[in-house]
Structure formats: C-alpha cells, structure tokens
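Per reviewer request, we include the raw input and output of the structure prediction for the construct analysed in the revised manuscript.
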Amino acid sequence: MEKSKIKEFTAKAFDDISGAMASGLVYIGVRTGLFRAMSGCGPMTLLEVVERSGLTSRYVEEWLNGMVCSGYLCYDPQRKTFELPDEHAFMLASDQTDHFIGGLYYAIPMMLQMAPKIAEVFFNGGGIPFTDYGDEGIEAIDIMNRGMYEHRFADYWLKSLPVVYDQLTNGANVLDFGCGTGRVILMLSSKFPRSRFVGLDTDNASITKAKKHAESIEHIKNVEFLCEDVQQFEPSQKFDLITVCDCVHDLADPINTLRRLRRLLHSSGTMFIVEPKVADRLEDNINSIGALYYGMSVFHCMTQSLADGGLGLGTCMGSARLKELSEDAGFGHFTKLEIKSQTTSFYSIRH
C-alpha cells in the first residue's frame, strides 16, 4: 500500500464525515430560521443572533461555531462576530425561490433516519414504503421542489412547448400524475384559469395537504385532487397534457403505469416528464450530483419501488431507460427537451 494514498483517502473520509455533520447543522439552520435571521444583517455577535432568532443561546453558539468551521459562515476573531455572506444567503435564506437549496438539506435527515431499516433490507430484500417516511418525507419533498415549480414550471419549462402553452392559455384538460401536495397544479391553475386540472396521487396524506393548500387560495374552481390508483381512475374525458414530475423512477410498475397514462392522454396530447438529470453510464456520473442521487436512490427512491415488489429503477434511471420504458408503453414520440438545468432533465412524450 502507498502511504500517500492512505493519507489522501483519510482526508477525504474526514471531509465526508464532517460534511454529513455540516448538512445536519444546515438542516437546523433552515428549519429554525437561523439563516433567515442572519440574512442581510452583516457581522453579528452571538447575542444579536440569539435576539433576532429568538432561540436558545447555548445551542445557537455551538451551531454558529460549527457553521464557521464548515465554511457556511464567516467569523471575525477580533470582533467575535459571525456573518452569513449574501452569496450564501441567496441559496440558504431564500425560501420558495427557484434558487433555494435548503430543501435538499431538509431531506437528508428524513432519508438517513431510515438507515437502520435500509441496512436490514440489504439482507432481507424488500424496501421501505413512502408512508414510513411520514410527514417529514412529505414536507421535505415539498420544500425541495416548491420554489422551482412555482417560478420555473409555467414561465420557463412549459414555454419550451409553445403548442402546449397555447393550449393551456386557451383552455386545456390537465392531469398531474403523482401530484403530491399539489404545488404544480395550484401554480398552473393560477397561470391558466381557462384550463381544468386534476391532481392524482395514491398517498392520502399528500392529497389531504394538497386540498388544504387549495382551500387557502381564493376563487379556485378549476382544480380537483383525488387519492386514487391510476389504473382505477376513469375520467370523463381524456387529457391534453399529463405532467409527471420526478416520479417515473419511483414506480413499482412503470411500463403498465405509462400504458395507462397513454390511454388517458388525448391522441394529440403531450406528456411532460421531469426527472433527475443523470448520465446513462456510471462512469459519467462520477461527480457530486451523481453521488447525491445514488444516495437518494438507496435511502428513498429505489427502496419505495422495491417495497411494492417493483423494478427499483432508482433515481439514476437515465434518459435511455426512460425512452425504452416509453416505447414499451406504446408511445411513438420521445423528445429530450433543451431546457437548462444543473439537476433536472425534461421530456416530451406523445402518441
């Protein structure tokens, strides 16, 4: 063995371990509002952070120290002040914007809490169903995606499909499959009041939250949320647009699900699919995003499919596999859309 390689790997291992701790501290900062309390305030003393956040001093002190050591905060040892740089606040204290990354940190504890159970299924097979993640799982997914859905979906993503955009403007029939807490549907319904929207999901807790979100918005009449299996779903008319956001890779039976969605899609309709952006080959995913997505796959996405006896496609399914699935489901037109994103890929699929 080469001592230099041992030393190099030891440094990497400690970087990864400390990064895990830093991620936990960032989660605390997002959940408690500490980043928001420091945003735009410049250098702050411990007392100022405590007073502005309303949190317990000793915990805040240790959190500040940890965030300094992790590079998230700046520290002035002469003045003993802590500062959240504006560039960091842009990413961490910008809730519900399209550049907020706090949701990713929020998801980490939600996923890692399942580590003991995940270790068991390595021995015994099977998986962890979505319901086991509870409200934390639902909330984490909502926080991760809400800003992008509300700020990019209609005004950027769908504009890559001008015919679809015009249909929505004039009045279309839309299904959001796997709608979760309903953010896509509620955003689209406000942008396109002439269209009719249905959100479909099998998770009752998510649909309950979606309905509550809808009730909090005045004058919504063009939205319906249903907790129902797509195989039993019998709408009165076919859909001009079906959106499938970040869930094909989670499906237990993706081919039959896509076949059913094809039957629900109007002959001239479009299915708009959003999936994690990954390469088709492992060697092309050897980067930080690839590592993130494979971890998410083990701790959340793949295991849900396997829990239902499914294929376990995993988060890193890739474009080639999605195209193969769509063809097996009977779709004749598959297009990967040229929409810029560091983490997400977009597809248009038609009869």
